[in-house]
Amino acid sequence: MIDCEHMSFTYDGKRFVLSDVSIRIAQGEFVCILGGNGSGKSTFAKHINALLVPDEGTMTVDGMDTADEESLYAIRSTAGMVFQNPDDQLVASLVEDDVAFGPENMGVETSEIARRVREALAEVGLMGFETHETNALSGGQKQRVAIAGALAMEPKILILDEASSMLDPRGRRGLMRVCKALHERGMTVVAITHFMEEAAEADRVVVLDGGRVALDGTPADVLVQTDKLAHLNLEVPFACELSERLRSEGVDVPACIRERDLAHAIADRAEGRAAQAPIAHDGSTAHESGAAGAGGEEPVIAFEHVSHTYLDSSKARKNRGKKGGKTAAWGNDPNAVWALHDIHFAIRPGEFVGIAGHTGSGKSTLIQHMNGILKPTEGRVLVCGRDIADKKEATAARAKVGVVFQYPERQLFAATVYDDVAFGPRNLGLSADEVDKRVASSLALVGLDREAIGDASPFELSGGQQRRVAFAGVLAMDPEVLVLDEPTAGLDPAARKEFLELVAGLHAEAGLTVVMVSHSMDDLAALCQRIVVLKEGEMFASGTPREVFALNAELDAVGLGLPAARRMALALRDLGMPEAFSGFYTEDELVAGIVSACKGGAR
Amino acid sequence: MNAAFSFGSYYQGDSPIHRLDPRTKLLAGIALIAAALLARDFAGLAVVAAFVAGFYAMARIPLGSAARSIAPLLAIVVLASIFNLFFVQGGEVLFQWWIVRISEAGVYSCGFIASRLFLMMAGMSLVTMTTTTLDLTEAFERLLAPLARIGLPAHELGMILGIALRFMPQFADELVAVYRAQISRGAGFANSPSRGMRMLSSLVVPLFSSAFRRAETLAAAMDARCYHGADGRTRLHPLAFGARDAAAAGVMAALVALAACAHLIL
After folding, report:
1. Which end of chain B has fewer CB atoms < 10 Å from its terminal CB, N or C?
2. Is B220 in contact with A51 (Cβ distance < 8 A)?
3. Does residue A559 belong to any structural domain of this protein?
4. pLDDT at position A156, please?
């Protein structure tokens, strides 16, 4: 179906982004293409539907050479493509018009277009959304509309260019489900991704590195090569990593790529021994005690029964009684009155608090209350004991509470990195000396060197560096509390890990109080002392990670899922492992538990 | 959140007005404006107002939504009427203080201009509220089509308009996000001009760079879906004039005539 022979490509005539790539993809295959940033994976994807044409070698799609101008539109309708950003690829304001865009361009007859639109929307599970506005959809739904737009051209190949990287877990699952269903009906699917769970579901995995094919094979062959993957800046699926770790601890389990398989393998090993080896439930208490110890101090940020509505407040109060029973099945209910409702909690100095919630649950609204950008409709927000409803207090709060918004690199604007980071301190009216000091120290905090990078334009930096500069811009305000909205959104695994380490360092070493919004339960489990879960603007749960993750199924119901280690622990408990497993949520606990369960008899 | 850009955003419905050919609606909107401009006194405007109210009722748009749609542009109405209040002189002087003088004619023209502008906006807002952007751009393109013969890129202009409308709410959201991020860093327009400039560039630069980034991906996405101009393009909902459109055209012609000579009749 896709025949790529010794293909090379360069954007600038100097550096080859792809060099001598030969990949053959058969009809009906589900292939995942993996690779770190700059590996050439997106460039490869754009060759399949002739958005780019190889400089050397050939690319043949369904028997048509992409270099042949004549068959350009035939190729593009054969290989439908879905792009990364859900906001940038929809052309029309209404769903049906957008889905119809492809066939309209192809000159398909009106009645046929109508049929295709109907069927394409049915295939992605968006029946009845024809006249919805594309702007009002969630990210996951937008991506499904984009898939429908490709399907309406009746393609044989579907290319997904990191289509899931900007979605929350729920949106990602929905997208994956649609792709698998299409694949089962014979569609050839080529998915560019850096999510290993997705790769594990594919028929075949191709890993690109520096424009060359580094690995090619079934997921079971490729994904277990943990050393190589780590070397290529890719993460390893949780099951592989865990099985590797268990083997190094002397538990003989095979390398698995699916968690289900690994759970069975472990359960088999442990069989019969569990009874003899009661496991002391000694789950690390460091986290909990840390939070409890700070209990006596005055909170840095306190929410007192805060409610917020984007509607006119008097109207909101009137409608207040109407809430309940009426919730949208997806995204933000446009009729929902309260973006936040009766939020009551406090953040103490030195804490690391996580805020979790599905898209549209009010997370972003919540954090914008922390430095007075939004004002509560009801209730009070106190920063260091002072109500920030007052304008003066809000300004003062902004120097104490630094907020790093989602995709902060998009706010960069100055001609040099130095000026951008200096923006905050200069707004505070500090002296040139002090500004200089702040810039240098905040750049150092994010691991950048002022001398090396200060005079560069922020727009010339790599994505990861841009985000660091944006972080530094907030740190230069010298805040006591750092609020982060999805700090790792849209990053590849290597960069994600670096940023989480950076955040952990700012908390542990720089002594900042950190509030982190995330929908990655793994990240929250690894870093936070306390987690607040929001659901449709209300506090759904709050407590230590152990308390929050004990909710299991309830978390799943609000679309959040569980950390991988906890998922595995529960699966093992269900397979007959000791009850203590239901208390685990970190990988260390889990490994210790499994090791003692499997070796218990021998000890 | 993006109240500033809600002018004329589409209100879903299936009323007779919604089902009119967008070309008819676009022309009717222009006719409405013409009628409002032709009206020379309040009687003429009253006729136009009656029609506008009738159209809104027919489109079954709730009063609240209609008001929300027009509200952002009311500032223009207020500005224009204040301007008239102070600068149009004539008749009895009602109020005088220092160089400010308000006369009878000023009050009259203030009210008249305000009503006229308001009616024009209400009319155009109704057109966009009952027409999807794609239909609107198609209508725009088709109405310009005769000019394509003299080299006017009608299709391209239509497409540009459509994309602009599609991305407007998105950029509005983005502007709000960038603004909030910058005030989080202590930015503000107040105090000194240099600070104001810095604040302005801290909003404009990110917005432009985002626009370019989006344009690039959107272009690729359109290419990937075989877009190649107007050539051989078909439509999911082809435009077709019907009896309804003829009726609407008749009504509009009557309106313009009535508004023009209302001061003769009443």
Report:
1. C
2. yes
3. yes
4. 92
Please report residues of A whose CB lies closer than 8 A to that of B185. Answer: 398, 423-424, 427, 473-474, 477
Minimal Cβ distance to B10: which of A96, A133, A412: A133
From residue A242, alpha-carbon distances to A245, A415, A501, B32 in Å are: 5, 46, 20, 71
- Mean pLDDT for all residues in chain B: 81
A80–B contact, CB cutoff 8 A: yes
Average pLDDT (B173-179) is: 88
Q: What is the pLDDT, as a whole number, of residue B13? A: 78
| Residues of chain A contacting B180 with CB distance shorter than 8 Å | 368, 373, 405
Which positions in chain B touch A110 (Cβ < 8 Å)? 234-238
Contact call for B132 and A93, based on CB within 8 A: yes
Do A426 and A542 share a domain, yes or no? yes
**Structure tokens given for A225:** 């090569």
Indicate if ipTM > 0.90. Answer: no
Residues A395, B205: C-beta atoms closer than 8 Å: no
DSSP symbols for B154-211: HHHHHHHHHHHHHHHHHHHHHHHHHHHHHHHTT--S-S-HHHHHHHHHHHHHHHHHHH
Query: Could you give the residue ranges of the DSSP H alpha helices within A93-185?
Result: 95-106, 110-123, 139-151, 169-184
Q: In 3D, which of B197, B208, B205, B199 has the Cα closest to residue B180? A: B199
- pLDDT, tens digit, 9 for 90 and up, residues A294-325: 456 788 899 988 888 876 544 444 444 444 33
Is residue A331 in some structural domain? no
> Distance, in angstroms, between A571 CA and closest chain B CA?
41
Beta strands in B37-164 (DSSP E): 93-97, 100-103
Calculate how close chain A gets to B218, using CA atoms only, in Å: 5
Domain shared by A345 and A397, yes or no: yes
Percent of chain A with pLDDT over 90: 22
CA dihedral (A42, A44, A49, A51) positive or negative: positive
Nearest CA in chain B to A477: B185
Paired with A5 in beta bridges are A58
The answer to whether position A296 is within a domain reads no
Is A313 contained in some domain?
no
CA distance linking residue A492 with residue A192, whole number of Å: 12
Gap between the Cα atoms of B133 and B155, Å rounded = 14
B224 contacts A51? CB cut-off 8 A: yes
The A residues from 29 to 48 touching B (CB cutoff 8 Å) are: 46
Whether residue B5 is predicted with pLDDT greater than 60 in this model: the reply is no
Within this chain, do residues A265 and A383 fall inside the same structural domain, yes or no? Answer: no
Shared domain for A560 and A578, answered yes or no, is no
What are the pLDDT digits (tens) for A424-445?
A: 998 888 899 999 999 999 999 9
How many angstroms away from the CA of A546 is the closest CA of chain B?
33
What are the phi and psi torsion angles at B223 (to 5°)? Answer: -60, -45
Same domain, A136 and A252: no
Total residue count of chain A as it appears in this document:
603
Residues 6+ apart with CB under 8 A from A392: none
Alpha-carbon gap: B139 to the closest alpha carbon of chain A (Å): 15
Give the SS3 label for residue B65: helix
Cα(A340)–Cα(A363) distance, integer angstroms: 9
Domain that holds residue A149: 2-228
Look up the pTM and report it: 0.77
State whether A39 and A52 are in the same domain. yes
The CATH number of residue A436's host domain is 3.40.50.300
Model pLDDT for residues B96-107, shown as the tens digit of each residue: 777 777 788 888
Q: Of the candidates A83, A134, A474, which has its C-beta nearest B221's C-beta?
A: A83
Q: How far apart are CA B147 and CA B150, in angstroms?
A: 5
Total number of domains in chain A = 3
Q: Is B216 left (phi over 0), alpha (psi -120 to 50) or beta?
A: alpha
Of B134, B188, B220, the CB nearest to A94: B134
Same domain? For A245 and A356 the reply is no
Is A108 in contact with A135 (CB distance < 8 Å)? Answer: no
Cβ of residue A311 closer than 8 Å to a chain B Cβ: no
